[in-house]
Design brief:
- With 155 residues, the chain is of the alpha+beta class.
- The chain is 51% helix and 17% strand.
- The protein is built from seven helices and three strands.
- Strand 1 and strand 2 form a beta hairpin.
- Helix 1 (6-16) crosses helix 2 (20-29) and helix 2 (20-29) crosses helix 3 (34-52).
- The N and C termini lie far apart (55 Å).
Length: 155
C-alpha cells in the first residue's frame, strides 16, 4: 500500500472539509489515489445528507440577489437546523448561488430548481451543490421558496 502523505491529507481536507480520519481512511481505501478518495468522501457526504433529510429545519435565511443590470433578481428562502449554521459563510454562499441560479434560469418551482445544472458549475446539479453543503455543515438544508422578478419577464 502506498504511503499516505500529510500533503495529500491537507489537500483533501481543504477541498472537502472532511475530518482528518475520514480523509485518511478514504486515501487508504483508494490506495493513495486522491481522485478516488475525493469520490469516496463525496459519496459518504451524500449518504450523510440522506440520513439528515428527515431532520426539522427551523432556522435559515432569506437572500436577495439583484443582477448587475438591475432589471432582474430573486428572493430565496433556505432553511437549516440551527441559526449557527445559517450564519456560516458556506450557508450564505449557498443562498447566494441559489439566488443567482433562480435569477438566471427562472425555475417555476423548487423541484425544477433542484434538477437544474448549476450555472457556475455545469455538470453538477443544484441538488448536489446543496448536498455538498449539508456534508460540510452536518445539518439538513432545504430550499423552501424561490421567486424570480424581472422587468418585462419573458421566462
Amino acid at each position: 500500500m502506498p504511503e499516505i502523505t500529510l500533503d495529500q491529507i491537507k489537500q483533501l481536507r481543504a477541498e472537502t472539509s472532511a475530518g482528518v480520519m475520514d480523509v485518511k481512511r478514504a486515501l487508504q481505501e483508494s490506495s493513495g489515489d486522491v481522485e478516488k478518495a475525493r469520490k469516496i468522501l463525496q459519496e459518504q457526504g451524500i449518504a450523510g445528507a440522506a440520513k439528515r433529510s428527515g431532520r426539522e429545519v427551523l432556522a435559515g435565511l432569506v437572500h436577495a440577489y439583484i443582477h448587475g443590470s438591475g432589471t432582474m433578481g430573486a428572493l430565496v428562502e433556505i432553511n437549516c437546523e440551527t441559526d449557527f449554521v445559517a450564519r456560516t459563510d458556506e450557508f450564505k454562499n449557498l443562498a447566494h448561488e441559489v439566488a443567482m441560479q433562480v435569477t438566471a434560469m427562472g425555475p417555476k418551482s423548487v423541484e425544477e430548481l433542484l434538477g437544474q445544472e448549476c450555472i457556475k458549475d455545469p455538470g453538477k446539479k443544484v441538488s448536489e451543490l446543496i448536498k455538498a453543503v449539508i456534508a460540510k455543515t452536518g445539518e439538513n438544508i432545504v430550499v423552501r421558496r424561490v421567486t424570480r422578478y424581472a422587468i418585462n419577464d419573458s421566462f
